[in-house]
Amino acid sequence: DGTLQALAQIFKHGKREDCLPYAATVLECLEGCRLPDSNQTLLRKLGVKLVQRLGLTFLKPRVATWRYQRGCRSLAANLQLCAQSQSEAKTHVETPDSDGDYDIPEEVESVIEQLLVGLKDQDTIVRWSAAKGIGRMAARLPKEPADDVVGSVLDCFSFQETDNAWHGGCLALAELGRRGLLLPSRLEDVVPVILKALTYEEKRGSCSVGTNVRDAACYVCWAFARAYEPQELQPFVAAISSALVIAAVFDRNINCRRAASAAFQENVGRQ
């Protein structure tokens, strides 16, 4: 684990031009180690962390001009940095979006595939790390490949998948929405899935699982309330609010009831 930690820190803090020549070799060695099959949670987590750092090294640092932006929500920042923000916005607008001629390295596909596998890991910390990695990777991708990533995340929400996949998918959707990488046009596909996740429960013998899925679904609703303008969520507000109230009142787990209550309050305040 010391080697993985060292490599993760090197690719995090090192200069891209210095790390890029070694990224493909490290990725190849990492794939040969088969860390997803390890029974040690820490090794799997560090493997996911290193994979996402390698993916960010392959992609050029860039701001996705296509992402959804609700705007600055800090009053102090609005008052102090209004002129500066406007000038920076003009600079970004004038910079041509190179989505059409931006070549994506072949290794990026392997990185995203490994992160999607990490969403289905048996441990929460690994799934959470993979979700953050998908959000960071999508922020540097052009619009079409990033939308393909969203589609791959939605594939986690199949009743053939385990509760781990549903939980990881919810975390990834929340991360994508929080970063503005889940465009409003995708909400009609995403919201029905989240409503199903709010009532997810699977019987296993004499007990049931799905508490973490319902809790993560509440987090998605909370994140969406902060990320989108009211007019974007207006067609879905009634369904979301009804599901959150039902979860806040009737869910058997107190953490889910608290999460649903917090998400409902956030939606009332912002939507």
TrEMBL record:
Subcellular location: Cell junction, Adherens junction; Cell junction, Tight junction; Cytoplasm, Cytoskeleton, Microtubule organizing center, Centrosome; Lateral cell membrane
GO cellular component, one term: adherens junction
Any single Pfam family the record assigns to this protein: ARM_TBCD_2nd
GO molecular function annotations of the record: beta-tubulin binding; GTPase activator activity
UniProt entry keywords in alphabetical sequence: Cell junction, Cell membrane, Chaperone, Cytoplasm, Cytoskeleton, Membrane, Repeat, Tight junction
The keyword Cytoplasm is annotated on this UniProt entry: yes
InterPro entries xref list: ARM-like, ARM-type_fold, ARM_TBCD_2nd, TBCD
GO terms (BP aspect): adherens junction assembly; bicellular tight junction assembly; microtubule cytoskeleton organization; negative regulation of microtubule polymerization; post-chaperonin tubulin folding pathway; tubulin complex assembly
Limits of the Tubulin-folding cofactor D ARM repeats domain: 42-271
UniProt cross-references to Gene3D superfamilies, sorted A to Z: Leucine-rich Repeat Variant (1.25.10.10)
Function noted in UniProt: Tubulin-folding protein implicated in the first step of the tubulin folding pathway and required for tubulin complex assembly. Involved in the regulation of microtubule polymerization or depolymerization, it modulates microtubule dynamics by capturing GTP-bound beta-tubulin (TUBB). Its ability to interact with beta tubulin is regulated via its interaction with ARL2. Acts as a GTPase-activating protein (GAP) for ARL2. Induces microtubule disruption in absence of ARL2. Increases degradation of beta tubulin, when overexpressed in polarized cells.
Family recorded in the similarity comment: Belongs to the TBCD family.
Quaternary structure note: Found in a complex with at least ARL2, PPP2CB, PPP2R1A, PPP2R2A, PPP2R5E and TBCD. Interacts with PPP2CB. Part of a supercomplex made of cofactors A to E. Cofactors A and D function by capturing and stabilizing tubulin in a quasi-native conformation. Cofactor E binds to the cofactor D-tubulin complex; interaction with cofactor C then causes the release of tubulin polypeptides that are committed to the native state. Interacts with ARL2; interaction is enhanced with the GDP-bound form of ARL2. Does not interact with ARL3, ARL4A and ARL4D. Interacts with beta tubulin. Interacts with TBCE.
Protein name: Tubulin-specific chaperone D
Organism of origin: Neovison vison (American mink)
Taxonomic lineage: Eukaryota, Metazoa, Chordata, Craniata, Vertebrata
